[in-house]
Amino acid sequence: MADAFLDLIDNSINAALKSSFASENALSYTALLESPPTKRFKVQLTFTPTKVIVEDDCGGITAKDAQEEVFVFGAGDQEGHQDDQLSVYGIGLKRAMFKLGKYIEMTSDHKDGGFKLDLNVPDWAKNKEQPWKFDINERPKAQAGFTKLEVTDLYKAVNARLSDAQFESQLKDRIARAYSFFISKIIDIYVNGQQIVAEQVAISDNQASENFSVDDVDVAILAGLGVPKDKRYLSETAGWNVYCNGRSVISYDKTGLTGWGVDGLLPSFQPKHRPFVGIVFFTSKHPESLPWTTTKLGVNPDNIVWQRTLKRMADAGKQVTRFLDARYSEDGTSISSDELQDAIGTAKTVTLKVTSSSPLLFRAPPKPPNNTTTIQYKVDKKELAEAKSATGQGSISNSEFGRYTYDYFVDNEVK
Questions:
Q1: Is 409 helix (H, G, I), strand (E, B) or coil?
Q2: DSSP secondary structure string, 291-315?
Q3: CA atoms within 13 A on the CB side of 312
Q4: 94 vs 218, which has greater pLDDT?
Q5: CATH fold of 2-195, please?
Q6: How far apart are CA 61 and CA 132, in angstroms?
Q7: How far apart are CA 338 and CA 233, in angstroms?
Q8: Phi, psi of 368, deg, nearest 5
Q9: Among 68, 118, 299, 371, which is most exposed with the fewest C-beta within 10 angstroms?
Q10: How would you write 170-210 as a 3-class SS string?
């Protein structure tokens, strides 16, 4: 069910990107990294157990696109729209609508003329003529572009899911994670009136980075230290984060999928690796080339782009894990940031670069000098007991008494 809502949001974001970056030669996601537009857009998702409404001010859909692209089934549907770079997979706009309910009303205004659609799905499905057509009514040109979708007469399974008290919270978490990049750059998303706060991935400015291309996919890799919360590092905010055309598909992964514990790649994730944060950003004008799964909830490990990227992720990641392996033990449940401050640097967030640039290396600071050593020697047990008794230290351990006698000698003979 949540997938259907996310596909509807994908459609709104596509429209916002198209409105902001008109050039067909510029990849909108790359442009967002360099200089986000000054205008922000809004998507409002409202639902009850009987109704779903999605509204946005992202530019609207033209009557021409509605007739030739959006509401098309068959071969044309499989080809997809050339500007639609988030919805190549998934159930898509119209299939999301059909998944929700039996009556669909959609209105869209656009500067080149919008449309109105009223659709009774059961009645429409009775028409066996091919190809399937929709009764789309054109609307005049408008100064402001907006789209409103309202689905009613919801299916029983949808009604039951939307009646679940936990669904709204789960959906908000999914949206905060999936669209964190877009929320930070271009769009505000509301669910039942509550604005979604992006689940941001924070990484310090001391990082290993690399940019390269695999066929028609541009790849940017960052690996470094995260930014501590309340001076602590937690496992929940450690690992690799992967984005495909700006949509989050993996968050804080610490498994073999991203190379952890795989021979020749990264070590198995240990508590001492909690400060590690990695980001991989894939962009392409041909989203079918991206390594995401059909559900956009992960990566396809057999994808050739992913396979070629994984080794380079490990090369960048090992610069950080070697520093952590050499400096920190596996004891405890979290790591204090005080010891890591010299390795973090100054900035709390960094800017990804997906265009060609020189690779960066993680700058591991030198270990602080170790000016201590250990004293060990054997003594007669009877004499040790007499010495403890003579000094009034009969109950302390042997090591503590050794420290006591050493301090006594330094204080009285050296100083």
A1: helix
A2: -B-TTSSSB-TT-HHHHHHHHHHHH
A3: 20
A4: 218
A5: Heat Shock Protein 90 (3.30.565)
A6: 20
A7: 11
A8: -65, 145
A9: 371
A10: HHHHHHHHHCHHHHHHCEEEEECCEECCCCCCCEEEEEEEE
Report whether 407 contacts 393 (CB < 8 A).
no
Whether residue 129 is predicted with pLDDT greater than 80 in this model: the reply is: no
Instruction: Classify each residue of 270-300 as buried b or exposed e, where b means 16 or more C-beta atoms within 10 Å of its C-beta.
Output: bbbbbbbbbbbbbbbbebebbbbeeebeebe
State how far Cα 4 lies from the chain centre. Answer: 19
Torsion of CA 341, 343, 347, 349, to 10 degrees: -110
State residue 349's pLDDT score.
Answer: 54
Maximal CA-CA distance, the chain: 107
User: Are the C-beta atoms of 56 and 13 separated by less than 8 Å?
Assistant: no
- Output the CA torsion 352→354→358→361 (10° steps): 40
Distance (Å, whole) CA 204 – CA 337: 12
What does the block give as tokens for 35? 């200089």
CB 37 within 8 A of CB 206: no
In whole angstroms, what is the distance from residue 378 CA to residue 358 CA? 58
Give CATH 3.30.230 domain extents, the chain.
Answer: 203-344
Condensed to tens digits (0 to 9), the pLDDT of residues 322-373 reads 988 877 655 444 455 555 777 776 655 555 555 556 788 888 776 666 677 8
Q: What is the pLDDT of residue 328?
A: 61
Report the candidate in 72, 345, 309, 93 with the shortest Cα–Cα distance to residue 214.
Answer: 309
Q: How far apart are CA 174 and CA 159, in angstroms?
A: 20
295 touches 302 (CB < 8 A): no
Q: Are strands 335-336 and 232-233 parallel, antiparallel or unpaired?
A: antiparallel
Start and end residues for every CATH 3.30.565 domain found in the chain: 2-195
Strand 41-48, strand 115-120: pairing: unpaired
CA–CA distance, 182 with 252 (Å, rounded to integer): 18
Bridge partner residues of 214 (DSSP): 217
pTM confidence score: 0.79
Pick the CATH number of 203-344 from 1.10.12, 2.120.10, 3.30.230, 3.40.50: 3.30.230
